[in-house]
Amino acid sequence: MQNTVNVEKSGVTALKAINVAKVITIICLIAFAVVFGISDWRQVIYMCLHVSYCLWWLLEQWLFPARQKIFNEPIGIGSLSFALLIVGFFYALPGYLAFTNPAPLSMATGAIALCLYIFGSLINATADVQKLTAKQFQVGLVSDNIWRFSRNINYFADLLRYLSFSVVAGSVWAYLVPGYIFIFYLWRISQKEQAMSAKYPDYSAYQQSSSRLIPFIW
User: CB–CB of 21/88 below 8 Å?
Assistant: First the structure.
């Protein structure tokens, strides 16, 4: 009964909560730039990477309306507050650390971060397009092309992008964010694997031929 009351009070879905949280992150990053200033390429690159990531999340739902069907379950006040706090403010922690880091960004560090972000973005976009196309034509279980390397290749790609933010930030504390996301994704994967096994008879064979998260490793 309590959960029902919370859902009615919030009146939003999980996707809407995440969208608002992404906007909060952008606002936080702009605030960091105003308060602490931009003194090095570290701050410039960080703003470009993280803001473009948040904007793409929002833009993708307009480009691919089917994306609006994800996370469409209604949530209660507690879940809404948690989403705004974690996705909106906590995810901006590497940005704060980047803007308060006085050390210049080395070329090697910048190159590593850019590679992580670019490959993460390309992998994620490719995986999303393939999955959306398969759903449109009712293909069923998607286990070929980029999805043959990992059953959760989109999660892996997302981790690469968040790792790039931490690399640019240049602080060990920045890795709290990808660390939390990794644990959260493990929980999501556990739920997903159970649902997929029940839905697709050939999912067990797919499990045997692919990695759970990290291609070729695990």
Answer: yes
Helix (H, G, I), strand (E, B) or coil at 72: coil
Mean pLDDT of the chain: 91
> Can you spell out the DSSP letters for 124-189?
HHHHHHHHHHHHHTT--S--SGGGGTBTTHHHHHHHHHHHHHHHHHT-GGGGHHHHHHHHHHHHHH
Amino acid letter, residue 51: V
d(CA 168, CA 204): 39
| pLDDT, tens digit, 9 for 90 and up, residues 120-170 | 999 999 999 898 888 888 888 999 999 999 999 999 999 999 999 999 999
Is there a contact between 127 and 188 (Cβ–Cβ < 8 Å)?
no
Give the three-class secondary structure for 211: strand
The bridge status of strand 74-75 relative to strand 12-13 is antiparallel
Residue 48 CA, chain-centre distance (Å), reads 16
Q: Report the C-alpha gap between 13 and 5 in whole angstroms.
A: 14
Q: What is the pTM of this model?
A: 0.89
Model confidence at 179: pLDDT above 50? yes
The Cα–Cα gap between 208 and 218 comes to 11
Confidence (pLDDT) at 3? 42
Task: Say yes or no to pLDDT of 9 above 60.
Answer: no
